[in-house]
Structures are given as structure tokens and as C-alpha cells.
Amino acid sequence: MGVEIERKFLPATDGWRQQGQPVLIRQGYLSSHPERVVRVRIYGDEAFMTIKSKAVGVTRGEWEYPLPLDDAQEFLDRLCEQPIIEKYRRRIDHAGFTWEVDEFLGVNAGLVVAEIELPSERQAFEKPEWVGVEVTDDARYLNSNLIRHPFSSW
Amino acid sequence: MGVEIERKFLPATDGWRQQGQPVLIRQGYLSSHPERVVRVRIYGDEAFMTIKSKAVGVTRGEWEYPLPLDDAQEFLDRLCEQPIIEKYRRRIDHAGFTWEVDEFLGVNAGLVVAEIELPSERQAFEKPEWVGVEVTDDARYLNSNLIRHPFSSW
User: Fold this and answer.
1) C-alpha dihedral over B124, B127, B131, B136, to 10 degrees?
2) HSE on the CB side for B116, CA within 13 Å?
3) Which residues form the CYTH domain (chains A, B) (predicted)?
4) Average pLDDT for residues B120-134, to the nearest whole number?
């Protein structure tokens, strides 16, 4: 098991847009239950299944396994809860950490979220100038909730 | 994807009990939703994750991946819907096919189900003399339903 400590922010400006190389992510859920999330993700031309346990604060258990691309495609198209999530991800290095900026498409178009993964809950880090308010504790921004309550319906 | 065609029967007698070598199975569900079952199973000292799509008649899509034993243990103990299923499985060859006889434990103790997997829906096969009535279409016998409505509550 890995333990994932993520903090999530909204962008303050468009400063992220010219940085990093956007990669298309398509992801869906075989389970979006908060105690046992099962996520299928195609990232570029690779596919993964990720299991996530319930979050305690900003920490949650996470297990990831590679998946045959064809199987992942079929899960997304035929089995996963609909709609699936589609977004462009940019990875932007800043002051020793990597920020992942997700620009959502489809029913979540208009939403952009910047995330940083940290080695411990108390780890200090420096925000790039384009990073705005923190939304780590706002469950609406969980990808598993964005399928039920997409950004376009807020 | 594999396609699984299974027919399920109750035993007519105890004739199965002296045959085959019982192997302990512990299994649980990260999703028991009929359209996207995600099953974690420890079979002897091996572990697997199995995805199943909705059944159409006796046919359903099935995909299986090996899983690290430690991860499977943690999923069963901490993440899966409770209670998990525990049963002894015996594999018994008869007239060119293999029967799997599951003897349930715990909250499902007393329940025994015999299953045969067939290459096509119309495949003919011979029943051993200890095999009784068919219950393929009775959803109560789905393992994913036996966690919500265990045999002891019928």
C-alpha cells in the first residue's frame, strides 16, 4: 500500500496554461463508494486500476496496478459509472515539488484543479504565483463526485 | 475479456463430500453492483481481482488479474463490503467437465452449491448423481448477494 497525501487548489490565474505538456486522461469508476474507490484510468497510452480507501484528513490508502489498454477501454465504455471523467493533465515542477494541473472536459468543462502530492501532512511547500485557494476539504472536487455532480451543474 | 457461462445447482446428496481436495477461498467485494462487480479472492495462497459485467442469461463478461497476497488480505480485512464470503471449494471431474462444489462457512454455513462452467449456452453435459435442482436463475445464490442476505437469514 502507498499512502497518498494530496492538497488541492484552484488556480488564481492562467499562469499554468503555458507550462507542462498536456496529456489526455480518461477515467471512470467501477466503485465510487468513498470507503472503496475503484478507478480505471487511461493516461496517454497506458492504463491502470487504482484502489483507494477512505481518506482520514488528507491521507488515504492507495494501491495501483497496470491494466491491459483494451480492457480499460472496455471498462470505461461499458462498465463504469457514467459519465466518465475526461481531462488534460499538465505536470509542472516548482521549488522541488511537482504540481498536477487538471483541466476538465465534457460536463466538467471550465473546472481547473491544481494538486500537489506531499511526503507528509506537515511538509512545507512553496506555491507558484498562479495557485489560489485551497479546496482539499471540499468533497465536490473529488473526481468520484464530479461524475454525480458535474461542475456544469454547480 | 472472457465470457463465463455457468450453471448452478444444489446438491441432492452428500456424494460430493468424499471427492476432490477442499481449498479455502476467502472473497469479498469492492463493488457488488450487478453491472460492475469487483471481487477480491484469496484461493489457497494465491490472490486475484475479478471484474464481472452484468449477466445476460447465463453469460457474463469476466476479467481476472493476479493480485499481491498482502494487498488482497488488506482489501478483505479493511476495504471490502462486510461480511466477506468464506467457503471450501472442491473441484470434481465428471464426464469431461469439472464441477466446482462450494461449501460455505460463517453466516452462510449450511449452504452448498455445485457449479459447472460451459463453453456455450447450449452445451450438453451429464450430471453426477449427487447433483440436484438447478438454481442458475435464482439471484439469492449469487455470492455478491450472499453478503447482504446470508443463507442463515433465509
Assistant:
1) -10
2) 26
3) 2-148
4) 94
Domain count, chain B: 1
- Identity of the amino acid at B121: E
Structural domain of A100: 2-153
CATH number for the domain harbouring residue B101 = 2.40.320.10
Does residue A29 have an active-site annotation?
Answer: yes
Query: What residue has cell string 481436495?
Result: B21
Q: What is the DSSP string of B59-111?
A: EEEEEEEE--HHHHHHIIIIIS-SSPEEEEEEEEEETTEEEEEEEE-GGGTT-
Residue in the structure block whose three cell numbers are 493516461:
A43
Q: Do A67 and B67 touch (CB under 8 A)?
A: no
A71 touches chain B (CB under 8 A): yes
Cell matching residue B43: 484461493
**Distance, CA of B73 to CA of B42 (rounded, Å):** 8
Give the CA-trace dihedral at A114, A73, B60, A145, to 10 degrees: 20
Q: Which residues of B touch A35 (CB under 8 A)?
A: 79
| The model's pTM | 0.82
Complex ipTM tops 0.90 = no
Please check the confidence at residue B126 and state whether its pLDDT lies above 80: yes
Chain B nearest-CA distance from A24, in A, is 24
